[in-house]
Amino acid sequence: MTDRQGGIRGWTAVRKGVLSGLRWTSLRLRLVVVFGLVALTAAVSASAIAYWLNREAVLTRTQDAVLRDFEQEMQNRAGALPEHPGRDELQHTAGQMAAGGQQFTVLLVAQDRDGRTVYGSSGGLNGFSIEDVPASLRAAVNKRQPLTAGNRSPYHLYWQRTVDDGTPYLVAGTRVIGGGPTGFMLKSLEPEEKDLNSLAWSLGIATGLALIGSALLAQAAATTVLKPVHRLGVAARRLGEGKLDTRLRVSGTDELADLSRTFNNAAAALEKRVADMAARDEASRRFVADMSHELRTPLTAITAVTEVLEEELEFEGGGIDPMIEPAVRLVVSETRRLNDLVENLMEVTRFDAGTARLVLDDVDVADQITACIDARAWLDAVDLDAERGIHARLDPRRLDVILANLIGNALKHGGSPVRVSVREDDDEVVIAVRDHGPGIPEDVLPHVFDRFYKASASRPRSEGSGLGLSIALENAHIHGGEITAANSPEGGAVFTLRLPKDASEVARRDAEEAAEQAGGAAKGKGA
């Protein structure tokens, strides 16, 4: 049973392959059809012309021979009859005339001595009769023609082709010159018709063979032409998948070979361009990462000093001179801002380098949002609408970063109260953060997640780094989720976060890709 099913599946696969290769939009099928139509047109035209020429030649040759013999018999035998012969004489003479080599039937018509019309047929009483002769032919035979310089005889030989019960016949008639009986001849053309039918069948078979041959030639030509095109398509797909070292084997000097060379040159140029861009991008990321690391050391010392200064500012005894207090507060705030910027830059470099990884845990979404708000003292400014019991397997730290950026952005630019709502949608957790501010301008909406984007060049410098929403979006993407920004019909901006309830599959796939990249890098170093 298994072997039979395997055979059926194999046949189905082969049939699907053939049908896909001959789909109506394929170049192969169009080439076969065009070749077939050209061959069919040429073969049918040649066969029709050959059949027509052979038909005319066969019928004309047979017709001329029969008419010539009939005319001779009329002159030799019918011309020897008396002016008023009897029926027996006509019957005897007609039989003699029909006994020739052409095998035609003869009917003689004359006037006896009493003025009666008598007939004599080589086919007997039930054979060829005067009713079998077309009336138009009888009229033409019996019509007397005027004698002129170009017409020396008052009567001529006339003939006509007829069909009776599907059998073609040649009918002819004439009168004896100088007086005598009128003779009619009936000749069956069935043997010639059979020969012509055999010829038509032969030409039809030749046409069919020509059509099959043209289809085979078209298939061979299509294979010759389409094989390089197929290889080019496969190479283009591989190039589109990022395999920039893909090249085509070039052979020959025709147009397809030139196309392959052009593809190889384009692929080489693209590989070089991408390598240069990757090198510049890597250098840029390394510079940002190195700069961030280098800044952390002095920032640690500066932060420690600013913490001391901040404690002095809060000391009731007034340890700081009131004249320099504004400057100290500015140093403290800017140090915090610089520290946040460095941390954000380091986070961005991890995303760009592809080294950011998820550390998953089972979390209650409502508890996680409450903890985020409580840690930043936003309880009075945020209205939370979230039921407990909505669990998800996510990275708690990254979820906290996303929520902090979205809620903080709403409080900073939109104004309180900020409403955070949570709901379940199939296999997703949907968190909406809405503020009651003026909303986001339509021309700014497409760019709210861009790094360092400013809605206006003249906008005063804000306290943020311009990376918060970008980092939030990257953290959503690494979970396999998404963040969208829009304006609420009731006023204010709405940021909607969608995350899968279980990001385990995304984490596993990222881990496999990281392992593959590490293996490829190790192999490259070993080579």
How many structural domains does the protein architecture include? 3
> What is the tally of helical segments?
11
Q: Which descriptor suits the 3D outline?
A: rod-shaped
So what's the CATH class of the largest domain? Alpha Beta
Q: From the 3D structure, determine the CATH topology of the largest domain.
A: Beta-Lactamase
Mean pLDDT: 79
- Please identify the structural class as seen in this structure: alpha+beta
Region (Disordered): 506-527
Keywords: ATP-binding, Cell membrane, Kinase, Membrane, Nucleotide-binding, Phosphoprotein, Transferase, Transmembrane, Transmembrane helix, Two-component regulatory system
EC number: 2.7.13.3
Domain Histidine kinase: 290-503
Layout: helices, strands, pairs:
Elements: H1 2-21, H2 27-76, H3 87-98, E1 105-111, E2 117-121, H4 135-142, E3 158-164, E4 167-175, E5 182-188, H5 190-240, H6 255-314, H7 325-353, E6 361-364, H8 365-375, E7 382-385, E8 391-394, H9 396-414, E9 418-425, E10 428-434, H10 468-478, E11 482-487, E12 493-500, H11 504-526
Give a verbal description of the structure:
The protein is an alpha+beta fold. It has 3 domains: 27-146 and 153-198, Beta-Lactamase, CATH 3.30.450.20; 244-355, Orthogonal Bundle (Helix Hairpins); 357-455 and 465-518, Histidine kinase-like ATPase, C-terminal domain (Heat Shock Protein 90). The protein has 11 helices and 12 strands. Strands 2-1-5-4-3 form a 5-stranded antiparallel β-sheet. A 5-stranded mixed β-sheet has the order 7-9-10-12-11. A two-stranded antiparallel ribbon has the order 6-8. α8 (365-375) crosses α9. 21% of the residues are buried. Mean pLDDT is 79; it is low at 1-7, 17-22, 456-461 and 521-527.
